[in-house]
UniProtKB/TrEMBL annotation:
PANTHER family for this protein: AB HYDROLASE-1 DOMAIN-CONTAINING PROTEIN, HYDROLASE, ALPHA/BETA FOLD FAMILY PROTEIN, EXPRESSED-RELATED
Domain AB hydrolase-1: 102-359
Pfam families in the cross-refs: Abhydrolase_6 (PF12697)
Protein name: AB hydrolase-1 domain-containing protein
UniProt cross-references to Gene3D superfamilies, sorted A to Z: alpha/beta hydrolase (3.40.50.1820)
InterPro entries in alphabetical order: AB_hydrolase_1, AB_hydrolase_fold
Length: 383
């Protein structure tokens, strides 16, 4: 079954990956979807629309925290109310022909070029329009010095308004893209037709997490250490991860069994890896600051606990997780789900953190989210 261009090897740009042992300790376990692929360009120009609450595919060279005067004319961007520019890309069927409209939210170190390998046949059959965008500071979008949980949700709402995708839309958040997704459930639930989390991260500060469950989890200590040094000594952290005295190798992260299971490692052999986590990129202060601010927003203190959220029966919410995920143990989500019975949980057998790249996963996500088709293969035996 031909994929929707998300793995078109003839068009895919390959980047040199050099991952240091130091950066692989501090940041890599958050970067689940920084793979880049390119689709054939389409270019319908959306009409401007300003609702009361707010005053297709182009091949572009990705940039990171790119100043406005360095962004090419081919990059599509909207201007937000605070003056920032947000870059986006459209995929799937044309917007005016779509039955379903989905905003895809990329993860740590990724961009609007993220991978979501749904089959072209299914996308056309269902009539799915995808809207991908660079979150603040990523790709061709301007950074947001006031980044927060709420600002991520408001960026999404304003993007939806500007591009006129309708009063309600679907969200799919991948890995670190889950915290903007949770924020949307909190701050703009009335705009959501349905939500899917794919390999979502968790914040160890959520009160609803079992203290007994996370007490001996080494990830909690690692994230706590990273958070403190990122917040209180960012200059030292930037110097440390960019030093030449640390050895560099393409395999330190990408074959690291601490973070990835065997299925993930097979995926890493055929994708472009983690380009934003190379030592060369991390030396760029704008890249470092974007990653740091994203990390602090996602793992800092939240203004709500997901376990306290409530949704109407009109919107379905799903979590897709691998039962061998070494970045975020599946037991943590099972713990949360006991307090959120309205969320439908799906578990990928032998699935690691990179399940968005597995054959069939994205099609299953779409069928369950849009059609409500029960995906029995991914039903866990016991929760």
């Amino acid at each position: 079954m031909r994929r929707l261009g998300f793995h078109n090897l003839n068009q895919q740009r390959t980047r040199r990956i050099i991952t240091s042992s130091s950066s692989s300790t501090v940041l890599p376990h958050l970067a689940s979807s920084c793979q880049e692929t390119i689709l054939s360009p389409q270019n319908p120009k959306p009409q401007k629309y300003l609702p009361s609450s707010f005053n297709f595919l182009q091949e572009t060279k990705p940039s990171i925290s790119c100043p406005r005067n360095q962004v090419t004319d081919s990059v599509k961007r909207i201007k937000l109310r605070d003056g920032r520019f947000l870059a986006y890309k459209e995929r799937g069927v044309p917007k005016n022909e779509a039955k379903y409209k989905i905003i895809l939210i990329h993860g740590f170190g990724s961009s609007k070029e993220m991978n979501f390998s749904a089959s072209k046949e299914l996308v056309e059959e269902l009539g799915v329009y995808f809207l991908l965008y660079d979150r603040a500071g990523y790709g061709d979008s301007d950074p947001n010095p006031e980044r927060s949980l709420q600002s991520e949700a408001l960026d999404i709402e304003e993007l939806a308004h500007e591009l006129q995708i309708g009063p309600k839309f679907y969200l799919i958040g991948v890995s670190m893209g889950s915290y903007p997704t949770w924020s949307c459930l909190k701050h703009i639930p009335h705009r959501l037709a349905g939500v899917a989390f794919v390999a979502p991260v968790v914040n160890y500060g959520w009160p609803s997490l079992s203290k007994k469950l996370i007490k001996k989890d080494y990830r909690k200590g690692l994230i706590k250490w990273c958070f403190r040094i990122s917040k209180y000594a960012p200059g030292l952290l930037h110097w440390w991860i960019s030093q030449k005295l640390f050895p560099s190798t393409t395999s330190v992260l990408e074959s690291n069994k601490l973070y990835f299971n065997s299925s993930d490692i097979e995926v890493l052999k055929r994708i472009t890896g983690f380009p934003m986590l190379t030592k060369d990129k991390l030396r760029e202060r704008s890249v470092f600051d974007t990653l740091k601010d994203d990390f602090l927003a996602g793992f800092g203190q939240w203004d709500f606990d997901p376990a306290d959220l409530r949704m109407s029966g009109e919107s379905s919410v799903h979590i897709w997780h691998g039962n061998e995920d070494k970045v975020v143990p599946f037991q943590l989500h099972r713990c949360i789900l006991k307090k959120l019975p309205w969320i439908k949980y799906h578990e990928i057998p032998q699935g690691g953190h990179l399940i968005v790249h597995y054959d069939g996963t994205c099609d299953a996500v779409l069928r369950e989210l849009l059609l409500g088709e029960n995906q029995k293969l991914y039903q866990p035996e016991h929760i």
